[in-house]
Design a protein that fits this description.
Elements: E1 2-7, E2 12-19, E3 22-30, H1 35-50, E4 59-63, H2 69-86, E5 90-93, H3 95-99, E6 108-114, E7 119-126, E8 131-139, H4 140-146, E9 153-156, E10 167-168, H5 174-181, H6 201-215
Parallel strand pairs: 1-4, 4-5, 6-9, 9-10
Antiparallel strand pairs: 1-2, 2-3, 6-7, 7-8
Length: 216
Amino acid sequence: MKYLFLDTSSFNVNIAIIIDNEIIENFSITNSPKLSENIFVYIEDIFKKSKIKINDIDKVFVVNGPGSFTGVRVGVTIAKTIAWSLKIPIITLSTLELYATTKVSEKYLIPFINDRNGYLYAGIYDNELNNHMIDKYLHMSELLKEIQNIKECVMIGYEKLDTTIEIVEPELDILKIINKYEDDYSDDVHLVKPNYLKMIDAERNLEKNNDQKNNN
């Protein structure tokens, strides 16, 4: 089986070609505002290096958030287009669970993406990728309450936080998360969408305007 893995959701762009449980090509580069201009070059290049054609792909795995709004949208749109045009399955993956594939000695991993004003996206996983707190958008103080009884843990992320808990940068094990989900049923390609975990500004403004209209 031949898989395309696509992650444009956060700090790095990660693209991989997997054949029969082996990564034959893997590309990673720091994400940038020019992602939408460069992503097709990245994808074309990795297919050239892997010496297979995009029509050979049997399944697409795409990371659909949380993370960069633009990055997530770009990755999801491309993955949906490929899956729809080739009529192949598409599987969505969590950015935070992908971070949790990082190999550490601690039993529990707390992957996070820092936001603003003390808020962050975070989840709690163990070394086998079992989920112990669903991915949430929450304040750091709320997260500390969630993990107050967890003694053996490490945080996984790229940003610095004001905490005494050790923070480790992600070292992604793409095969680990693909092996977990490769036998799952495909998502309906038409229903696949970004998982932002929080309301984006446009949605918040629309909801505010609707509330004001309803109150008038």
